[in-house]
Automatic annotation (TrEMBL):
InterPro entries membership: Cyt_P450, Cyt_P450_CS, Cyt_P450_E_grp-I, Cyt_P450_sf, Cytochrome_P450_fung
Family: Belongs to the cytochrome P450 family.
Organism: Bondarzewia mesenterica
Protein name, per record: Cytochrome P450
Gene3D superfamilies cross-referenced by the UniProt entry: Cytochrome P450
Keyword Oxidoreductase in annotation: yes
Keywords on record: Heme, Iron, Metal-binding, Monooxygenase, Oxidoreductase
Molecular-function GO terms, alphabetical: heme binding; iron ion binding; monooxygenase activity; oxidoreductase activity, acting on paired donors, with incorporation or reduction of molecular oxygen
Amino acid sequence: MPLKQLAIVSPASGMITILHPTSGASIIFMRGYNLLTSSATGFASLQIREFYGASPGLRFHTLSGIHSVSPELQSSFRQTVQSAPAVGHCLRRHVVPGLTDANDRTVGSDNAISRTVWTNVAVDVAGIVVALFLTKAYLRRRTRNGLPLPPGPKPLPVIGNLLDVPRKQPAWLVYEQWGKKYGDIMSITVLGQTIVILNSPTIAKELLDKRGAKYSDRPEIPMIKLMHLDVANIALQRYSKEWRMTRRIADHSLRPSASITYRPMQRKNAHRFLRLLLKDPEEFVQHIRHFTTAIAMSVAYGYEIADYNDRYVVIAEEAVSMGAASFYPGAWLVNVIPSLNHLPGWLPGMGFKKYARDCAKLVNEMIEAPFAYVKERMRDGTALPSLSQENLDTCQSEEEERMIKYVASSIYSAGADTSGSTLSTMFLALARFPEAQKRAQAEIDAIVGRGRLPDYDDREKMPYIEALCQELLRWRLASPMGTVRTSMEDDVYDGYFIPKGSYILANAWAMLHDPTTYPDPDAFKPERFLNADGKFVEDPILASHFGFGRRICPGRHLALATLWITVTSVLAVFNVTKAKDENGKEVDVGADYSDSLVSFPLPFKCAIVPRDARSMELIGASETSVVEGQVA
């Protein structure tokens, strides 16, 4: 028989949560804890929602010291205390200042969550926690029809696998190790939120591709919405009619045949990149950033950025940087307790509101300003080819124009960082693996010669370069875990239950470092993608680098073409080696990467020098290249 009322007392958070006996509303009372700076309390509220269903759970939030308690809440509290004899003793002793107890007496702070209370009701508390855990297990069994969640580390009562969440190592490495014990589909539950991890491309393809109708949503992250980043980057949008409209525009504009339109621009910016490297090779990371941003702005708007402090770039970089710090559910407490957004901004701890407003202002300018630039250029007939220009030419409604605007802003916000990560990996790999570099240069010299720079017409004739590009994507992924998805309905896979609302993580790192598919996976070996005849073999699993199903990156063809022209151009004219210290000793190139949504190599040094005098001439002559790409 289901319980009619239930209470949880958390010593860590000073929180009481009860289920109203008549309305069924979850009511939460908090005291003695800094709610606004603690993720633990917010996670606990997620757990309560998981017990009794999704919204409108947690009907009442009383935040001690934040606002006065409503009479309705006081009445609900009294009614619950009076009708819950099993926990009444405990509830009468754990109240928030400003509420009244069952006898309508105002309760002072001396009686609230005190040492005396914990001494007197220790047995009550233990019993409540046990009852909560057993009730949770009962409700889950009933919901699953007896089917278990995918295997994983054993959860603790109440907090689940909170202590198992990776902290000291990147999550993708931890989940890769877990897979050896639990299998290719695993799960953890963190304070009520089920997280399913997929380590197999077969399972990922089945769920995220074939069953895409169930697995194409994104979680609701309040700060992302408050900052308007869900429209500035369509990859973060929830699965909706609006997302489907923007996705159709992106797929059409960035399809392989359409991407060819951008090749002259990609080539031009690759040559500009060479000149920047020649001028100041030690700043190669900054040059990469400039290069990937230039590509994104050209594709989206036909806009050529300035060499330094470009107005649009500064705005976009600041907006994306602020958003990146707010992406994860636990980054701000409002991400786990969305109702905090309804509190007045002047209250203590509401700093997230100003942060969101400041970011939203930047995001809006990032979206609007370059788009207005395109429209102005189209009016005076000087617009360069771009995604915005192409789609505005055939635009038939204000709604469609708005969707075009969102897709254009996504080119930068979704693509510049990932491309930058891969190009940084290129320099790291070339410095660490000189034999791969020499073989690639030999192929370029044999096909292209030393009298010109490589061009896209050479691509099919250089299988080793193609293999090297593919190995760059496999060896160190730009986004090893991809972007989290959310299941839109209950599902069952291989006898395992996947609840609606589960977070789904596809561990592309584990998929592309499986030793059964990629022997010696940590080694950089482009030849693994060549057959016995030396011909390039495309790896179907490598698509996981760009995602799965309906959410796969629409700009992947453009990204691959950019990577190819950059790799060949750099190798044609530069040698990349380990840097040397003041004593002439080689400085080791590290192998560590940032633990972030887009993972970058940690700062490292390398030497980038022209191969010879002829290389320097080619770099200088590239500035006079005509549109067709031939060096004058």
